[in-house]
Amino acid sequence: MPQPLPSEDQLRLDIVEVGRRLWARGFVASNDGNISVRLPGDRLLMTPTSVSKGFLTPEMMVVTDLDGRMLSGEPGRKPSSEILMHLVAYRQRADVHAVVHAHPPQATGFAVAGIPLDRAVLAEVVTTLGSIPIAEYGTPSTPELSASVEPYVRKHDALLLANHGALALGKDLFAAYYKMETIEHFARISLVTRLLGREHLLSREEVGRLQELRGTYGIASPAPVCPDPASGDDPPCQVLQAPSAPGERLVLDAAVGRARVAIGNTGEIQLTYAELTTLIEGAVRHLTARTMA
Fold this sequence. Notes:
The protein is α+β, with helices and mostly antiparallel strands and 293 residues long. 38% of the residues lie in helices and 16% in strands.
């Protein structure tokens, strides 16, 4: 039998708990971040503006309609200034019942660097989230931001916001929060692999096997992973970087740590000792791989 929906009172308590977890884990600072949950009757329960997520109380939450109009709340309370970003997710996805926005440090670092988390590295992430793209920059709290997010929420449950933070969608509040945890966990591991200078990617064939497991695990996804990442500018699927290697499950990609070569004003190639060492090590690995092939 389906589980009964939590009451509004319980959802208020749940938002308080999720806000506390975001704050305790350092995913938000000061008054950053916002949380919302869909209520029956085309309504939205949301965190108010100008309050730390670590110090919320149930009474602080506000209720709006799906056009963002305030329906109820304590005197002086207003919904989060970034409500437009939440509304676009609910309008595009009937299956989304909660949205969590935060600024987890490592994931936000990738967003600022313009590096999407779209490489097939962790089996669990491929199975649960697929890829985590970056929405183009839009000024926070404006329609510009919600417009930049709109094409991505149709196909993704998790995404980065350029020079801003991260967004997670879920079938319920804790599902959305756990996806935010996964975004940051994946970002931390990806950062370590880049510092180490190499990573093993899951092959495209292995990604296909992992996608088939979604049904076994009861995982619903808004879109499948693209079999070919180069299939158009806006494919109806999630773009995931995974090299084709029939018969293989892992493919070594040493390009992650490849040194950047600087060209001086005189046209001379300038390298630090560490960069030269990286290039030499990469060349040795390449020659060794060719010799053993």
